Amino acid sequence: MRSYIKELFKKKESEKVEVSGWVHEKRDLGKIRFLILRDITGIIQITALKDKTKEEIFEIMDKIPLESVISVKGSVKESKQAPGGKEIFPEKIHTFALSEERLPIDVSEFSKTELSKRLDYRFLDLHRRKIQAIFKIQSTIATAFREHFIKKGFIEIQPPSIISSASEGGTELFPVKYFEKSAYLAQSPQLYKQMVACSMEKAMTITPVWRAEKHNTVRHLNECRQMDIEMAFAGQFEVMKQLEEVVKYIVSEVMDKNKEELDILKVKLKVPEAKYLSYEEVVKLLKIKYGEDLSPEHEKLLNKKFPDTIVFIHSWPTSLKPFYIMPKNQDPEAELSEGFDADYKGMEISSGGQRIHIPELLEKMLKKKGLNPKNFKSYIDSFRFGAPKHGGWSIGLERFTQVLLGLNNIREACLFPRDRNRLIP
Ligand code: ATP
Ligand code: MG
Q1: Which of 105, 298, 319, 398 has its CA 20 to 30 A from that of 386?
Q2: Torsion, CA 277, CA 281, CA 282, CA 283, rounded to 10
């Protein structure tokens, strides 16, 4: 029976074992040959001695190409030199899958292959422990997010991905053919989570969204996953508090569940503090021109002033927020809104706020933004039959992974990125 490599380190001297995995490294010292085997739980050294190991096994240990898949039967030996303090003396090796001799990308620990080439061969890039560490951590992030809100009584929802019109205006959408109608890929679950909040009070989702912007930056993808909540009877401060709590929980879970992965990535984490500042305070603090959005440089500066802190910037000018964000005092002429952004480690991780639940006010705000309320009829109508005050936010899953792990490029935090130039693999 196959054991996972991690379990081998608990086995006794001379115990018979069978392990399966990928050929990670090989070394030939003439009379002694080493092969490092890797599975999802770790690596172990297989050691063969010329005069003690069967000849055919000694041969395979040298000939087998890197990244081939094998199983090894043998016995466990203590070894001070071997990584982890144990090694296996092989008695039988079975080859499941031979890799081609020349690998198209370098998959070793210190791989120098550039990102775009690595992404061309992402399936092979995923053999690397560093890359696996990123996605194991991403799995913890999504699980912690879900767990946290389910415990708090939120309902996990599955919003549609095909929509008939823009829910936000502004962002560009990908059109899709939908029988005789025109439709689009959703750029956010906004409308749908609002409808659920106005009926079932507390909604959460992790869902893909698509944005057809032609940007080519290190922080944007054209397809990304969002972790969203929306809740009834809540304004911007209540939902910011929810964000603060979940981010702290996610970070503590990653610190607890992914010690090995953080080690592999050489990332040290701390559960963050939270700081709440109004847009006006931030404008003064960073000497920004009032009415301007924060640039990436401003975000970095904010991180310098408040390291290891989730910085909430609340009460933005309505002019900088989408039409559906509630203006202060429900006043369509108000300069400021109930909308916020959250920055962490020098980058925006989330936007949100209180939404407009009053149809007439929505119509006014749409017009103020130069949008035609007729195009948003079904959205506006959804608030005519008992819609309470509500609010929510959205964290980009890949963006958050990038920020948390200090990755240079968001593509590192996306299994199979979709960007302007990439649809394969
Ligand atoms: P940014 O200002 O960083 O471009 P945004 O304000 O346009 O983002 P929102 O509509 O506020 O984005 O989306 C909510 C969150 O989703 C963002 O805070 C970010 O974490 C993530 N996000 C938004 N757009 C993208 C994208 N193109 N690729 C990856 N993540 C994104
Ligand atoms: Mg935003």
Answers
A1: 319
A2: 160
The CATH number linked to 224 is 3.30.930.10
- How confident is the model at residue 296, as a pLDDT? 95
Amino acid at position 238, single letter: E
Instruction: Give the mean model confidence (pLDDT) for residues 100-129.
Output: 96
Q: How many CB atoms lie within 10 A of CB 307?
A: 12
Residue 72 has pLDDT above 90, yes or no: yes
Q: What is the CATH classification number for the domain harbouring 41?
A: 2.40.50.140
The predicted model scores a pTM of: 0.96
Nearest CA to ligand 1 atom 9: 351
Distance CA 210, CA 222 (A): 6
DSSP class of residue 83 equals G
- The neighbour count for residue 401, using CB atoms within 10 Å, is 23
Q: Looking at residues 225-249, what average pLDDT do you find? A: 98
Q: Which ligand 1 atom lies nearest to the CA of residue 220?
A: 28
* Amino acid of residue 299: E
Q: CA 221 to CA 237: how far, in whole Å?
A: 29
Strands 69-78 and 86-97: antiparallel
- Gyration radius of the chain over CA positions: 26
If asked whether residues 355 and 272 sit together in one domain, one would say yes
Residue 48 in contact with ligand 1 by CB distance below 6 A: no
Edge-to-edge strand ranges of the sheet holding 181-185: 162-163, 181-185, 175-178
Ion ligand 2: protein residues whose beta carbon lies under 5 Å: 351
Domain that holds residue 26: 5-97
Integer Cα distance of 312 and 304 in angstroms: 15
- What is the 349 CA–ligand 2 centroid distance (Å)? 8
